[in-house]
Write a structure and sequence with these properties.
Layout (H helix, E strand, L loop, with lengths): L1 E3 L8 H10 L5 H19 L1 E3 L7 E7 L8 H14 L6 E7 L3 E8 L17 H11 L6 E7 L9 H9 L3 E6 L9 E6 L3 E2 L4 E10 L3 E9 L2 E10 L2 E10 L4 E10 L11 E8 L5 E4 L6 H8 L4 E4 L8 H4 L4 E4 L4 H15 L1
Parallel strand pairs: 3-4, 3-6, 6-7, 9-15, 16-17, 16-18
Antiparallel strand pairs: 1-2, 4-5, 8-10, 10-13, 11-12, 11-14, 14-15
Helix pairs in contact: 1-2, 4-5
């Protein structure tokens, strides 16, 4: 490819061409020599060069570290990184991106040995789209690159096809190394359906659909918060079967339910043996006040105004969305950010 290092000097051809036309030389030979001299000088100032094809580029390994991956997924992903590292050229660079609920750049494009995965990305989701966006950002524009995705193919959040289309538009190839757990003898809860909101004192039905690989006896347990409200054993056929539960709403707020099932045989994917659901009970909710003292002046003022408050210290608070959903507001009274912690602040931001 023919390029110019200083193309701005090419603009001089316009005024010089005008001067060449307005003040011509007496003979045709001199006019040609003047034109050739002007063009040669301007081209020399623009510094022409030939850009040869370069095979050196950047390889980005995108590793899934969510709970759906096999137990040794991180070790297998590092092995893939090491194999790529050993086969790289002298001017190639390697980057590593890991993802789960969040995305982290474990290593920017560089050479040298990869020490391993250290970032905390959250294992409750597989945000592949954000990971691909980060990988594309690590590859310089107009430079060769390649992306290797080490994943089980499952993703959550935004559809990653848009990021894949952007990679194709930049001629960046994407490869996929499949790492997945065996699905033989996998007992799973396919769905757990509950009403979104109910009235205080209202009775309601909760339905769970369980997928069983074979006919067997499964154990089940349903908890409301920390209280077990149903437990037992049930004969289920191969395929889908239904479990029905009944409960009654109590005080206004949000009630958390968790259903777990267990089979006699070893389960290759135990994470899908549990399901959670939230049921909102209509009515006024209390205010959560985080304070160092349950008898502070602010708490006394709220109670004097007949405001329903729940006073806790930061250490006594479970920083989950299920817990915060029970309250209409959260008040921090003389509480330092370090006492809440990064996880608590992220949960508060998501709850608001």
């Amino acid at each position: 490819m023919f390029i110019f290092s200083q193309p701005v000097w090419l603009a001089l051809l316009i005024p010089l061409g005008v001067l060449w036309t307005l003040w011509p030389m007496p003979t045709r030979l001199l006019r040609v020599l003047r034109a050739v001299t002007i063009i040669a000088l301007v081209l020399a100032m623009a510094q022409p060069a030939i850009k040869l094809p370069d095979r050196a580029g950047t390889v980005v390994v995108v590793a899934d570290r969510s709970d759906s991956m096999p137990a040794d997924a991180s070790a297998q992903a590092k092995e893939a990184v090491d194999l790529i590292q050993r086969g790289m050229g002298a001017r190639d660079q390697l980057a590593v991106v890991s993802f789960g609920q969040q995305t982290a750049v474990e290593r920017p494009p560089q050479r040298g040995e990869f020490p391993g995965f250290t970032a905390q990305v959250g294992a409750d989701a597989s945000n592949l789209a954000d990971a691909l966006d980060s990988a594309l950002a690590l590859i310089p524009p107009d430079a060769p690159g390649r992306i290797l995705i080490v994943s089980d193919g499952k993703w959550t959040g935004r559809d990653p096809l848009a990021a894949a289309a952007r990679a194709a538009g930049r001629s960046i190839a994407m490869d996929h190394r499949l790492l997945s757990r065996p699905s033989v003898n996998d007992l799973a809860i396919q769905s757990f359906q509950t009403p979104e909101t109910v009235l205080p004192g209202q009775a309601y039905i909760m339905t769970a659909w369980v997928q069983s690989p074979v006919e067997q006896t499964v154990e089940y347990q349903l908890t409301r918060g920390t209280t077990v409200i149903a437990a037992g054993k049930k004969e289920v056929p191969a395929g889908r079967s239904r479990l029905l539960f009944r409960d009654r709403a109590t005080t206004p707020g949000t009630t958390q339910y968790q259903l777990t099932v267990k089979s006699p045989a070893a389960d290759p994917v135990p994470e899908n043996n549990a399901a959670r659901a939230l049921v909102g009970v209509r009515g006024p909710k209390p205010i959560l006040v985080l304070s160092q003292s349950a008898e502070s002046a602010y708490v006394k003022l709220l109670r004097k105004g007949r405001v329903d408050v729940d006073v806790r210290t930061p250490a006594e608070t479970r920083w989950t969305l299920e817990e915060l959903a029970r309250y209409s507001a959260v008040v921090l009274e003389n509480v330092m950010a370090s006492q809440v912690g990064s996880a608590g602040m992220e949960t508060l931001a998501a709850w608001v």
